[in-house]
Amino acid sequence: MRSIVYYAGPLTRRREADMTGNVITLHGRRATRRRLPDEVASYVRELIISGEVRAGEFLRIEPIAEAVGVSNTPVREGMLALQSEGFVQLVPRRGFVVAPFTQQDIRDLFWTQAHLAAELAARAAEKITEERLTRLETLLAKHEEAIAAGDEEHIADLGHAFHREINLAADSHRLTLLLNAAVQHVPNRFYATIEGQVVASRHEHPLLLEALRVGDANEAGALMRQHISAGADHLVDALEERGLWSRLGSAS
């Protein structure tokens, strides 16, 4: 097994908002900043899922701290969180090492998201307000504009916002928290870089909106489950094209 050195580039992207933390402004917008260990965990997950680090490679604390812009303490806390999620393993007296990551792991993550999100969409269809429907329409229009402009950052942001509006419309706080925990396992920025996912969203988001508008809970749930489940295939295909598992298979 070998260690790897990281560069500071990836985390210069905007940090996506979650449901807790301190309010900050990013790119002129009001957003919610994650706790520092959560930012570390998100950064390392991205390295692992993108294939920038391989199973068996040691993750050095200092380069990660420099890349994220934090001290060593939140890095250790973030790594311990990733250990509990199965992304890394702690080797006594040696540090954290990347755990094996398979196609089935991705499918399992998306299966969990799909079923939770489907239930939320079904509940949203029964409770959604005209005001929230109008916000969803606006988000769809802006999403189209971002796709036309090739703006990957805003494509990801607007897709995330569309789903968030639906989740909030369900008025099921505990279930939304469970979904949020599952979603954290797959970096949001990947959705905008996967062509199949963007094409699917352009077709399926309007169908979801129509199901919500007419209050069809069964249709909204089914569409959401299919939409998210298909995301697993898109991501697996994209990572196979990048040679992730061939590299993992050749790692010692």
TrEMBL record:
Gene Ontology MF, one: DNA binding
One Pfam family per UniProt: FCD
Location of the HTH gntR-type domain: 34-101
SMART domains for the chain: FCD, HTH_GNTR
Entry keywords, A to Z: Coiled coil, DNA-binding, Transcription, Transcription regulation
Entry coiled-coil feature ranges: 126-153
Source taxon at top rank: Bacteria
Name of protein: GntR family transcriptional regulator
